[in-house]
Protein: Thioredoxin
Amino acid sequence: MATREITMESFKDTVESDGIVLLDFWADWCGPCKAFGPVYEQSSDAHTDIVFGKVDTEDQQQLAAGFGIRSIPTLMAFRDGILVFNQPGALPSAQLEELISAVQDLDMDAVRTEIAAAQAGDGQAPPQA
Structure:
């Protein structure tokens, strides 16, 4: 599956769906973004069960600002509508594959329990892949 453009209008429906959604926040003028693009695209071809979205931070400034994007590329991973990974920087192919495996291996019931506990005020932070 090829990557798809994510906008303010498509964001909510995309990330709140079941399964894994990866988002690449990027800009055309960004050298590291351009270097990461082919790695990301190749991974999208290999993992047709995962949604690979791209957010153009120049075109979607409100969306980028809403996530506090300060450095690009920034990669985010959502699983079943829950943000489980958020990190700036381009990843080499092997690290991107490790991230995908880690997100696939998450016990989402445990993640939801930890989030509920954190929201109840016991100070536990949700796990990150």
Remarks:
- The first helix runs from residue 8 to 15.
- Helices lie at 8-15, 31-46, 61-66, 93-105, 108-119.
- Residues 103 and 129 are 6 Å apart (CA to CA).
